[in-house]
Amino acid sequence: VQLQASGGGLVQAGGSLRLSCAASGSIANSATMGWFRQAPGKQRELVATITSAGTPNYADSVKGRFTISRDNAKTTVYLQMNSLQSEDTAVYYCNGLYFGKLWWGQGTQVTVSS
Predict the structure, then answer these.
(1) pLDDT confidence of residue 1
(2) Which residues of the chain have pLDDT under 70?
């Protein structure tokens, strides 16, 4: 599975961005997909995941503000980020997990200015 993340950028606090993660490979739609982020000087942390059946899971810090979704026809996973805060500034990575095998895409920078 190959993953290509896009959609990052610079946004003012309170604004919105939508990240996309395009997946290729025959098992892409069977994988649990996720978004993680890593801020400068911090460890990479979970943001949200979504199972192949569409069940989402969110970190407490983004609940109610971020929405993860997937379009299996396009083998793409999205992260809609609303009410962005300066603490959301990080490099965002998508990943895919299938039977214990993990793939990572390249990161996309999200910068929230206050």
Answers:
(1) 83
(2) none
